[in-house]
């Protein structure tokens, strides 16, 4: 990566001159005339082949002046305020530094006086609570949250209506059972998760810390710590609250912390205590003061405050505060005062959890549920209208009819009975129809979807092919609600550093004093005496080996001949923020030097300097120790322009601007010693992964801060760009030129698409992409495009390109690009995934996390495809399964004078979707596979099935409804006609319908299962057996009307003939249609499945299988 950051980084706190001895060499004096701003220029992994690419200019550049000029020009031209402009971050930081804290916006903290602090302001205690419920609030709050689902409210209303005497169709307990079961299962799951959170909170709150109480340090539980108290933390201990540093074990006030619990970063970071409090010992010297700081906020990288102590006012910034969850490393102890506690700490304010998301499939499913609701209303309307007509026709006979009897002769006098009038009866029949047909809306579907997603997540996490051995990390699924969205991804937005690359910088070459040393042969560093240092009879050796150039190594050891080489590597070893940590080994006399720092660039440079004999041994804020070719040198860091720096660093207003002014004054009259070449290699499998994603029809966008030439080179190395692509480059400096470039590019892209489409038709091409256009755009152009009317043109152009490469973009612009796509194409709600090689904070905030970029291919093309196929089929099957049962009830109502009596027992109606048929669909939704992993990876175009919505769409929904209608007709009328002349009672034929429908829907499911396992067999056939057992048990109970009915019915051969005839007759149309479609109009999935059956594509040999082109589905 191209880096223009200076190697000489001023310390946030420069010690006073009286703190430093003057009898030691001055580091800055010998380097003041030659300390450079050394760019770390890298060339991407040269081992990766670049296929079909034209000759490229040499990317590695050793002159950073042009880059700096370009950056300056960008900043000067961005005068128009933009939300996603390149100046956003810098402007925001400057405005914060210039803002003085008002009394209204500040909190006042009395140091070492928690009583006075909290009595007046009532700050939060340090007890945390991540649990959502308590014993008292669990029941009402959990129910309130569950009833946010409209379907639950629907079933609650149904259960309430069934309690009314006029509308009672089922038993009161039976009507409540389905909803109660679903609520109970969800409540148990939520209770278990919340119990685990409470257990974690209890452990956290009861941890111990050392707190100053009555001028003595005492052990105190974390939950009892209050704002204003002074706390002492020892090495390797965790910070219990956000605290301002007062003093440390280091005489210069530096402390090293690890923020792995906060943002996942394992590198050490430095924090500093102010000089005014550094010399004070809290348990001996009475410390009093007043801290005025900003109110609690979520910004973990910012802190604005000032402190009044000893009648002096000093400023406090991010380098003076340690946040809750950090660990003290390489420092014996630190002392600080609590400023934010408990729920007000920055860590807890950021612990709001991932936002709730809903998959596209579920959103579409809700639309279908609305259609099913309308269908339900239509059925109920038909029943009520027909009932009204029947009541009119037989109004003179209602006095003696059993269900609509108007006259009551039980008391000897004629009276109206069980009849509410023609209008009310029609209304009551409508409501009773809703109760009888209620399972048209599948309440069990929600629970089934949650269980299936959990099962899918389990197999994704356990997939060994997505396990990263280097970081010992498995795939992480943080958002279960969008598993199926992984099968419909259209865009992939990727950063470069740490996402496509390893983020492990390696020193490759250098140019020193105008001499290029990049062409020499390098050898791996050996275990020679020159690469280690002797300290107190201990051998200190750098932990990481670096390749060295023999000529450069010889010059580094020579005298006058290698003076410039000597100065160059001395600057590399000295001018950085690296902290050397000594690590013990199995050998008693050997120790390893582990260089820790926030920047991997600095780590690479320091390891390189050590390989050439300049070994950094010790660093404090006041001095450093370097072993130069076996001789130890101690260098003191002296302050430049001491008074100006102290004035700037303690300023309350405009601190950042003043510090920049001092830095510009210091960094003058410098000579360039040389330039270093650092390589950040591509991760293993990145080129192949990007090529597979492009073949799958996924538009890959790479957003990087590199300059355009470097970004294009990376594009070729990673196979993002190919020689066959037509590149459209937009690199403009005004809004007008951007507009013209976009318009010209749109015209060109349309012509290319026309030519490409004609070629595809002529050649019969089935490529995943309809265009081979790559858009390359820089951050300067985006300044004038984002948040303007040009956004629409950019989206139109980008949608016609298979690849988009954005270079020189700021972080805010990256967010703006994603927001643009989301705004323009609302069908796609972004799924966030993080790669383990990038900043861990991004990983912790993601929906899915993985160790390597290449794992994105099996995640999307394999698991994403499976998840989408399973969930899409499961939703349609649930609609069919419930609708066929409801339609059987509907046909029966038409033959019973619309009285809404049911031959099927109420308990069978209740258990149908809860017990009889629920388990098989869950098992199939977790385990079934339409294609094997090998096929999906070999033919990435198969991923287009999800993008084209082949598994779940409106056409399939209506075909399912038509198939359901036919199957319900067969299931109802075949037994009806078979027993038309018999004396069979309603309970007996109801048992026949119950068993027939359960067998039918399970056979239907079995026809569609592709990968059979013993669990699948057990669930499908076991459900049929379980249904038979339940029917027998129900009919064996004397309190039910169908007592012993199944035993009489099963003795006849007609009963078994009906069961077989229903399954065969209902399945014939479906079987014929499937056979016709698969034979004459097979999909890509069906072709690949057939190929799998013939021995892993052996029949096809090396030939390609023609695939359907991937087009966007029509917008609705």
Overview in brief:
This protein is of the alpha+beta class and 1116 residues long. Helix content is 44%, strand content 15%. Keywords: ATP-binding, Magnesium, Membrane, Metal-binding, Nucleotide-binding, Translocase, Transmembrane, Transmembrane helix.
Number of helices: 36
> Strand count, sense and closure of the main sheet?
6 strands, antiparallel
Instruction: Estimate what percentage of residues fall within beta strands.
Output: 15-25%
Tell me the Rg in angstroms.
37 Å
Structural class comes to alpha+beta
N- to C-terminal distance: 44 Å
- List the uncertain runs: 1-99, 524-530, 763-770, 1097-1104, 1111-1116
Name the shape in a single word: elongated
Mean pLDDT: 79
Helix content: 40-55%
Number of strand segments: 34
How are the strands of the largest sheet arranged? 4-3-5-14-6-12
Active site: 495 (4-aspartylphosphate intermediate)
Cofactor: Mg(2+)
Region (Disordered): 1-22
Keywords: ATP-binding, Magnesium, Membrane, Metal-binding, Nucleotide-binding, Translocase, Transmembrane, Transmembrane helix
Structure description:
- This is Phospholipid-transporting ATPase.
- Keywords: ATP-binding, Magnesium, Membrane, Metal-binding, Nucleotide-binding, Translocase, Transmembrane, Transmembrane helix.
- The chain crosses the membrane at residues 174-192, 369-391, 426-447, 879-904, 910-927, 956-980, 992-1012, 1024-1047, 1053-1073.
- It is an enzyme of class 7 (translocase).
- This protein is an alpha+beta fold and 1116 residues long.
- Among the domains are: 106-126 and 225-350, Distorted Sandwich (Calcium-transporting ATPase, cytoplasmic transduction domain A); 443-459 and 859-1099, no CATH class; 505-519 and 530-664 and 672-678, no CATH class.
- Strands 4-3-5-14-6-12 form a six-stranded antiparallel β-sheet. It has a five-stranded parallel β-sheet with strand order 18-29-32-31-30, with helices on both faces. Strands 1-28-19-20 form a four-stranded mixed β-sheet.
- The two termini are 44 Å apart.
